[in-house]
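Question: I have long wanted to understand how a fold can be written as tokens. Here is the record:
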Amino acid sequence: MEEKILLTEDFERHGYGSYVTNLPNIWSVAYYFEVPNGLIYKTDSSRPLKLKITAYEKFTSVDTSVDFTVTASNNVAIVRNPKSNQIEYEWMAIARGRTSGKITYLASYDPSTRQMTFGAIPGGTTEDIDVFYLIADGMMRLQITAPARAQSITQTIFEASLEAVNSTRQNTINQLLKIPADFELRAGWKLEIAVNTPATIILDARDISDGNFTTSWNELAIVSIPVYVGKEV
């Protein structure tokens, strides 16, 4: 079997009716990867995985020509530099103007009020903005769902709080994430990112229902899951 990394773009949003991805405040699948016909995938417990899960919100009529502040509906994960312990705001949230089409990064965050302040956008105007931020509220799982005639069978292979996952850079030995064992997935099986959070989880900007984005400008979301891939015999 060959080594491979499953990335964010390999996953598809799940969706539940009018909900773009997950259901609020209940365990539900936000994104999934389905094993193609003729292949076998196996998770690799010897290599670290990387996960950064983003919440999404839209704010209307914001003056982006100056520094601007919006209030998140949920708590934002605080990311600190592992060496200096300084808060790295630019790794916590990102915003994009609908009219200007330009991106700006978080400049400061007040956890007591959940207020996020972003830098002014050059050439900005009063416009709607799309915001992604690392969510601190709730839990997440990686799980495997095997199709069955009567009902699907689901097994959790990794579980953590969203704050624990999102507040670390995952680039030092004591911050590495790993799936505890190797798990095999056959054709038609799904590797799912499930969450229990009040937030709307969107990893790819192209999944914003009214965004009409052709590329994903969400630089914060990361899915990097090491696997082995082989042909089904």
